[in-house]
Amino acid sequence: QVQLVESGGGLVQAGGSLRLSCAASGSFFDINAMGWYRQAPGKQRELVAAITSGGSTNYADSVKGRFTISRDNAKNTVYLQMNSLKPEDTAVYYCNADGVRSSWRVGNYWGQGTQVTVSA
After folding, report:
1. 69-92, pLDDT tens digit by residue?
2. Is 45 helix (H, G, I), strand (E, B) or coil?
């Protein structure tokens, strides 16, 4: 079993910054990709940013230049530094771990979500 525990969400004014963290724990050998998704009320869940174990990154166009994803493979932790936040960034942010290799499967896992609210 693999658990993803997120932290760092909250309320911030437009133009401010937040840093999200997500730590993976449990019984596994390694994780291929880790990423952040978000879901605003009435909208579909969308990819925000992702990073592979080798450090390759992918960002949604809406966050390029403002958000930075990073990863500590030794700690199985992924971070999302969010700068210049806008009200439209308000959403529940979910951590995702893909290609999680254990002795019995290669799986995909989600965190419980953390609320990010940006006030105008």
Report:
1. 999 999 999 999 999 999 999 999
2. coil
